[in-house]
Each structure stands twice: as structure tokens, then as C-alpha cells.
Amino acid sequence: MLLAAGRGERMEPLSSFIPKPALEVLGEPLAASAWRHLAPRCQRLVANLHRHPELVAAALSELRKATDPPLAFSREPTLLGGAGGVAAARPLLGEGAVLVANTDTWADLDLQPLLSAYDPDGIALAVIPHPDPQRWSSVRLGCDGRVEAFEREYRGNTELFLFTGFQLLGARVVAQLPPPPGEFAPLWEALRQRGALRAAVVTGRWREAGTPLAYLELVMSLLGGGHWCHETAEVAADVHLVDAAVGAGCRVARGTSLQACVLTRGVTLAPNCTLHRCVAAGPFTVPAGTVATDALLLPSGTTQLR
Questions:
Q1: Boundaries of CATH 3.90.550.10 in the chain?
Q2: Successive 10-residue mean pLDDT values, the chain, 306 residues
Q3: Which end of the chain has fewer surrounding CB within 10 Å, N or C?
């Protein structure tokens, strides 16, 4: 189950034009990360859709290869929540365990410990040692791998973990999910109280992309100090690119300088633009001579990058 039906409120105003799962990350949608983790391990894939459903469906459909499992969509005119989304999708998922992934983060993880923690009557969460417990909520574990608590505030504890967005729902848990809507938090707490909520510590890389600034930082981290241009992008010979990603169908005119910038599909930069630490999401044309720093450039206007 690919959870792709969020509102994207922290990503506003960017998510008014492009939903988070469909955001371009070096030539593929952000949801490709979750897809790569699930497709080799699952008999079928289901994605729930709410905001910009056609854009998300198109992005996911483009990822599917002939050897991948079939993909179906569970449409949610009214948002049903995480657990509610899985419950509503049961006719498409079929019987059995469900491997669930968020589609608004980027990861390259070894999920074998998560699969090994399977319990038909419980849920296992994939966690990593917490990179910043003062920024995000934490998971505290017992010595037996059971979840002891979720901590919203950092209290100086050292052995804390971060939930990665991947979880394995036992077959009987899926079958007994209450009718939607519903969030995972109450379900987790009920299972935790009876010792049926476990966590598996996984290894690898994980990055969040919840805000326009976090999206820029994700792409910069993947670039690793270079620049990248999609094969369909048109970039003038004298354009100066430093830590820049130029997406599909973008056009960058002469005399332009891009440093630590991301241009998503369909953006056109007129001549002599200078952008530093900016995200431009199209399709639209940035006027000639534009100078911007720490900015989000959209068809609706320019705002500060946050």
C-alpha cells in the first residue's frame, strides 16, 4: 500500500500545483523511492489518491515496469486517514499482510529486518536511529523490540528512533481494521498496550521532503555537489550551473546562473536570470533578468522558501 493521499499542507504553496508524491527528484517522482522498496516484495500494489489524483496516478503509472506487480488505485474523495485508507483499499489489496509505505519521503533502506519481524496479530514499524529528536517525534523501544512509547518532545533520552514511514501490518490486523476514516496512531496505541506493536531497526539512508525547503535540501543531497539536467531539458551553452537540477522539458536561456536550485518539469527561464537556493515549479516562464535568493517561484507568484 502506497499512502499517496495526503493534503500536503506543509508543502504549500508548492503542493497546490504539484502533489508531493509527484514532485520531480532527478527525473523521477518522489514516490519512486517507496515504489522501489515495495514492488519487488509484493504481489500487488495499491495507492490511495485524494489531492491531484490524476497527477499522482500518472506519476505512479509511469514507474511500473512489465515485471512489476499490478497497480490499482483507491480514490478518496474525502480523506480517510492512514489506517482508514488501508481499510478502504482491502477489496483491492486482497487477503494477507500489507506492507505500507509513505510516498512523501525519500529512502534507500534494507527492509529485511522489518519483514523478519512479521506478526499476523501485530504491526512492525521500520525505524532508524534518530537523526534529530528535537525536530521530529521519537519512538522508544524496549530491549525486546516492542514499542514502549512515542515521544513528541525531546527529554534528553539517547536511545531514540525515528519511524521511516514503512510498516508491516499483520494479516489479522488488516482484516480487523475498523471502517474508515481512521488514523494509525490509535491503532498503534491499542497494539502497543497489548505488546503487539514492534519496531525493526533498519539500515540505510532516509530523508524527509515535507516542505519546499526540505525538498530542495533532499535534491541537493542527492546531487552530491554536482549538477543534473534531464535529457529533454534545453540549457544554453553559457548557463552557469552549480548544485542545480534542471528537470524534464525545462528551458534555460543564455546568461543565466543557477546555484543550489531545482527546476521542475516544464519551467522556462528567460535570459539573464540569477537564482540562488531557489525552487521553480512549472509549467511557467520566469521573466528575463529575475534575481532571487531563497525563493519559491510558481505560476502564482514568488514566495520565501521555507
A1: 2-208
A2: 94 95 97 97 97 97 94 97 98 97 97 98 98 93 94 84 98 97 97 98 96 97 94 97 97 98 96 98 96 97 96
A3: C
Q: 212-304 adopts what CATH topology?
A: UDP N-Acetylglucosamine Acyltransferase; domain 1 (2.160.10)
Domain covering 2-208 in this structure, CATH number: 3.90.550.10
Place of cell 533520552: 157
Provide the pLDDT for residue 156.
77
Report pLDDT for 154: 85
